Amino acid sequence: MKSTFLKITLMSFITIGAFSCKNTEKEAETTVEEAAQATEMATEYSVDAAASQINWEGAKPTGKHHGTIDLASGTIHLNEGKVEAGSFTFNMNSINVEDLTGEDKANLEAHLKGTVEGKEGDFFNATEYPTAKFEMTGIENNMVKGNLTIKDKTNPIEFPATVSIEGDKMTLKSETFEIDRTKWDVNYGSKSVFPSLGDKFINDTIKLNVLLVATKA
């Protein structure tokens, strides 16, 4: 009897310890760093919202959809051709679906934006959260690092990108990268959040591609 009690107690401690380790690892993965600050020597570039764009792609077992999101504003600070700091916001009410037309296009865009009554929180709820924001924390070996805020949730992300300068114009172009939407409480159709969905789920990952064009202020 005493031996059984000791085994149960030991297993409880192991379980609690493992759970604590997982929590610690999760917290370490989602540590949000301070946004990078530009030096006095840096030159400010203003984002050209009309020339900039974010491309997105979402998928599920039966297919996928893709589209764009417009940037609203932003600034980038360069020092001797190197990015020191930067941030930009994008307009969540501009979510556009490119692979559908007519009523199908309008319905999916409304669902993604959260303008369908009773389904406002399924995806991005753009009425309550009209903008999202990205703040750079640094660039290392062409890897852009920063904090992405969607629906008032902030998580660190990173993606490979190239920066080019031509006259007074600067272009930052990323490679395609992925984010896990559930980290920003975009949970609709997520099998990791709702395990009973079977094969009627939407992938947690969203593919993104960023084109950022800015001109010297």
Automatic annotation (TrEMBL):
Residues 44-215 form the Lipid/polyisoprenoid-binding YceI-like domain. InterPro entries: Lipid/polyisoprenoid-bd_YceI, TTHA0802/YceI-like_sf. It comes from the Bacteria. This is YceI family protein. It comes from Aequorivita flava.
